[in-house]
Design brief:
Number of domains: 2
Order of helices and strands: HHHHHHHHHHHHHHHHH
Strand content: under 5%
Largest sheet: none
Structural class: mainly alpha
Helix content: over 70%
Number of strands: 0
Distance between the termini: 38 Å
Length: 439
């Protein structure tokens, strides 16, 4: 009977997880579509991809803060009072993000950032700033979709995330074909425009479904876990700090890759390799949701689930990195060749290590959020960025001709350090198997 109960629970986990995983997979496909579109630029596709990558890396600093609203909503929102508190926090978040982003987009600070820190030429700076100004608008719709996706996930309606992503991907792919048929129009702004269009569509679908679920919430939680604005922010703040540390990794990598032998080749190859790697690990970006929703009920079964799904990305990347299939995919599906293809293939081989580590980082982060010990994430992310920077500096000093592979190695070792801190901290701060989400 116990075995049957475990089988039913495992099937329930899969039914819950697969729509989440497919939606994450489609998100990764959308980024591959953008990079593939930019690779069809008539003049210097490496420079076009580099411009988009630099703008996107700075955009990522603020966009990840919006994504955290999904986890916060999933964990905390059980009633309308907490949801209203979350909306107030989101409003302040959007205002803060728009203020910071506007300084970069419309003042000399942006020219200084991309020109002196990133080392971009004046011509490239113009494209980067134009791209970034479009990406700033994405944040508004990203916050909206994440709030309502958090409700959708907590109510086990995960199929709607997949539906939203299918519609988003269809719009983005259609725009991609339009630009590919007119390659003279392709620039970094092209990628930002495609991304914005997709985000608007996904946010609209998420809002339509999520709003109906919010209307069904009770006014106050029966278990007394209703949160005011301060309660929501106390949970959110440590994750916000940790995510700023986490997303600063990519800009740091792009800045330091600018010191290699060939800046454009290094950044472009790293960007393409990472987008493919993210495609491979996309299912595992929702591993924390399995922990949040099932770990209390069946911790051993959740751990087994993590093992089974955790090895899949590494297997996929091994196929791409160490067999002829990888070169075929890069040349025929992504649309790159020559030195860019060679450098991207080298980076993919090293990203195998990252793909094996990342699922367990997300797994441990799920336990951290479940225990409301989100302060741990500040230290784990801090160790990640420190190790990433150390490896980057050593790599650029010793092997500057490794191009994007330096970034792949640094990110992999940084993630290993993050996992080490998480495992150590969780083992030191053990709690009973039933955890509260108290203040």
């Amino acid at each position: 009977m116990a075995q049957l109960d475990q089988t039913i629970r495992f099937r329930a986990m899969i039914a819950f997880f697969l729509p989440l995983g497919f939606s994450a997979l489609l998100i990764s496909v959308s980024h591959v579509i953008i990079n593939s579109t930019l690779a069809h630029a008539i003049i210097n596709p490496e420079i076009v991809i580099t411009g988009y990558a630099m703008a996107f890396s700075i955009f990522g600093l603020t966009e990840e803060a919006a994504v955290l609203m999904r986890q916060t909503c999933t964990v905390l929102v059980k009633d309308k009072r907490t949801f209203k508190s979350l909306l107030i926090v989101c409003l302040f978040l959007i205002i803060f993000i728009l203020l910071i982003s506007s300084v970069v987009a419309y003042t000399p600070a942006g020219v200084w950032l991309f020109g002196y820190v990133f080392g971009a030429s004046k011509e490239l700076q113009t494209d980067i700033l134009g791209t970034y100004r479009i990406l700033v608008l994405v944040t508004i719709f990203s916050v909206l979709r994440c709030i309502y996706q958090g409700i959708i996930i907590s109510k086990m309606r995960t199929k709607w995330l997949t539906i939203a992503m299918i519609i988003r991907l269809s719009v983005m792919y259609g725009l991609s074909l339009l630009f590919i048929s007119n390659p003279h129009l392709i620039s970094g702004r092209t990628g930002a425009f495609i991304f914005l269009a997709g985000m608007i569509v996904e946010a609209a679908v998420s809002y339509a479904e999520g709003r109906m679920l919010v209307n069904k919430l009770p006014a106050f939680s029966d278990d007394g876990e209703s949160r005011d604005v301060r309660g929501v922010f106390r949970f959110y703040r440590p994750m916000l700090i940790s995510v700023f540390l986490a997303v600063s990794v990519t800009p740091a990598i792009n800045v330091l890759l600018g010191k290699t032998v060939n800046m454009e080749l290094a950044i472009a190859s790293y960007t393409i390799a990472f987008s493919i790697t993210w495609l491979a690990i996309s299912f595992q970006t929702y591993m924390h949701q399995i922990v949040l929703n099932y770990y209390k009920k069946a911790p051993h079964l959740v751990f087994k689930f993590g093992i089974i799904f955790g090895i899949m990305p590494g297997f996929f990347l091994c196929l791409l990195g160490f067999t002829p299939l990888g070169h075929w995919v890069l040349q025929n599906l992504v649309g790159i060749n020559g030195d860019l293809l060679t450098a991207t293939a080298q980076a993919l081989k090293i990203f195998v290590l990252f793909s094996l580590i990342f699922p367990w980082v997300d797994f441990c982060n799920g336990i951290v959020m479940l225990r409301s010990q989100t302060g741990i994430m500040v230290w784990s992310q801090g160790s990640n960025i420190v190790m990433t920077l150390v490896v980057l500096l050593i790599g650029i000093w010793l092997v500057p001709d490794w191009n994007g592979a330096i970034g792949a190695l640094a990110q992999s070792i940084g993630s290993a350090a993050e996992l080490g801190v998480l495992v150590f901290s969780l083992s030191r701060l053990r709690q009973p198997s039933t955890y509260s989400i108290g203040n």
